[in-house]
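chain below, 245 aa
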Amino acid sequence: MSETRMRIALIDLMRGVALIAMTIFHLGWDLGMFAVIDMRVMFEPGPRWFARCIAGTFLFLVGFSLWLAHRDGISWRPWLMRLAQVGGAAAIITIATWYATPDAFIFFGILHSIALASVLGLAFLRLPWWATAAAGIFVLVSRPFLQTPMLYGPAWWWTGLSAIIPVSNDYVPVFPFFAMVLMGIAAAQLAGSKGWLSRMAQLKFDSLPGRFLQFIGRHSLVYYLLHQPVMIGILFAVLKVAGRI
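prediction:
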C-alpha cells in the first residue's frame, strides 16, 4: 500500500486514547450535574487543562490525518463528505445544547473547530513543514496581541480574538486551538519528508485494548455523539435505583 493511502494504526490508537480521556472528563462533568460531586471541581485548573489537552490532541490528529489523506492532491469527494458529516454533527450539538442549556449552549465547540480547521488547513498542505510549524506557533502565541475591540461582539467569538470569554459548555476558538491542527500538519509533512510514515505503519497494536482503542478511533464521530447520552442514561438509572434521585 502506498504511503498516501496507508492506514496508520498509531493514529487510530491515539484518537481512541483521546476519546477515553474525553469520556473520563465528561464523567466528572456528569457526576457534578447529578450532584454526586461538587461541580466546582470541574472548573479548577487541573480539569480545565485536562480538557484543553484532550481538545489539542484531537486537533493535532485532525491536522496529521488531513495531510495523510490529501498529500498528493485534495480528494474533494471524501473531503466534502467528511466535512458535511462533521458540520452536520456540530449543528446537531448546537441545537441540542440550545434547548438543554440555553445559557451555556455550544456555538463553537470541538466539532465546529474541526470543521473549520478542515477548510483552513487545506491552505497549508503544500508548504514545507517548517513553514506550517511557524504558522502554528504564530497562532498559538499571537492571541493577546491580535485582540481588538472590533472583534468583541458575539459574531466574532469563534475567532478567540475577543477579550470576552463567552459562557459555553465547550469553547474551542480558532486562536489558539488552530495551532494544534497546524502542528499536526507540520508533523505529518516532516514524517513524510523523512520517510517515517512507513515505519509508523509497521507498528501494530493487536492486544484486546489496542484493537478496542483503534476501533473507537476509527469511528470517533459516532462515539462522540453517543457517549454522553449513553453515559447520562446509565448514571440516571444507577442513581435512581440507589435512591439518589
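DSSP finds ten helices and no strands in the chain. The chain has a mean pLDDT of 93.
thats it, cya
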